[in-house]
Amino acid sequence: MQVLGKPFNHRLWKLQDESPDLIRKTLIAYLEEEGWEANIAPLGPKMQSEFAISFEWLGVKHGSEQYIQIPSIHICGGLMLTRSDPDFEKIMDMPVDERKNQYLSLFWPESPENNPLNTGPCPDPIYPDPLDFGEIWIDMGDKRE
C-alpha cells in the first residue's frame, strides 16, 4: 500500500522486459529522483519484496549520533503475482485456503487480524493506529573516536 504525495511515476512499468543493465540504471535513477524504489512483481521471487529508501526522503540527517530512528512504518508482504507470470493460472486455480497456506502473508509488526492494513484491499477510508507501527533504528557507525 502506498500513500501518494504526488502523481505516481510509471517509469518502472514493464521494466522487467529490459536488459539487466538498463534495469539497474533505471532503478538507481528512480531512487535518486523519487527517494524510494521497490522491486515490481515480475522482477523478483513471488514471496520477496525489496525496497530502497533514501535517508533524505525519510528526513534522516547524518550527524554525530550513532543511532538514528526513522519514521515508524507498517510492512505487509505476500504473494507478488502478475497475470504474465507462468504460474498465474495454476496459483489462481488453487482453493483459496490452500493458496493462503502456501503463500503466507507477513505483517510487521504483528497486529490484530481486524487491523485495516492487514485485510487486503483497504476500505475507504481506513484509520490505521500509528501505535501499531514498528520502529526502525539505523546504526550510522561507531561515533566514539
Give a description of the structure.
- The chain has one domain (10-139).
- Helices cover 22% and strands 17% of the residues.
- The chain has 4 helices and 6 strands; from the N terminus they run αββαββααββ.
- The strands form 3 sheets. The chain has a two-stranded antiparallel ribbon with strand order 1-2. The protein has a two-stranded antiparallel ribbon with strand order 3-6. Strands 4-5 form a two-stranded antiparallel ribbon.
- The mean pLDDT is 79.
Rg of Cα set: 18 Å
Percent of residues in helices comes to 10-25%
Put simply, the count of helices is 4
Beta strands, count: 6
Q: Count structural domains.
A: 1
| Through-space gap between termini | 42 Å
| Spatial arrangement of strands, main beta sheet | 1-2
**Structural class of the helices, strands and pairings?**
alpha+beta
Binned strand content: 15-25%
Largest sheet: 2 strands, antiparallel
What's the overall average pLDDT, rounded? 79
Please trace the helix and strand order, writing H or E for each element: HEEHEEHHEE
Low-confidence stretches: none
Shape summary: globular
